[in-house]
Amino acid sequence: MSVQFAGIGTEVVVGSRSAERAADTVKELHETWPGRNLPLVPGDNDTAAAADLVIVATPWEGILTTVSALRKTLADKVVVSMANALTRWGKDMVPLLPPTGSITVAVARALPESRVVGAFHHLPAGPWADLDHPLDADVMVCSDDRSAAREMIALIDQLPGLRGIDAGGLASALAIEALTPALLEVNRRYKTHAALRLTGLDPSGQQ
Hints:
Elements: H1 2-7, E1 12-16, H2 19-32, E2 40-44, H3 45-49, E3 53-56, H4 63-68, H5 71-74, E4 78-81, E5 86-89, E6 92-95, H6 103-110, E7 115-118, H7 125-128, E8 137-141, H8 146-156, E9 162-166, H9 173-190
Parallel strand pairs: 1-2, 3-4, 4-7, 8-9
Antiparallel strand pairs: 5-6
């Protein structure tokens, strides 16, 4: 994810509980894409949380612990949750239902002073990380903060191949997150990296 934003010239702070681990990640990305001068900066979670916009890409099991520790730093910021609660049941991946209904809503409750947005739940990680072959996909965005949703959609629209779609308020987060295991199953059965693309949309009709 970070490499795509860096690829359009946006400075990205790659955060981790360990600054050394973040530095290793940034080094690996620079080695993967030599000559691109990607504006990637390593730091710990506190450093990353100080950015203008924060995307939380931790596994869903630890996301509340991570954001709760940064609540004051994240106040008044757009905070994007892309986590999906899922687990393996036999050979299949199945969605889990958190007490709040979705991980995005749980993050919003943990960060009441932040402008929480749900996005990027359905993008296949491998193809999305390939700067040479843009992923052709739509990104459903949900938030109770309408201005935050519009800001996120405008940012997504700058990424090659992606289009931001306003999916409404946080009430949509449950359906968006629960769709992810079905897409994983499609990709497993067809041995591909399919992504969502919605048809019949008029961009001028966005509210």
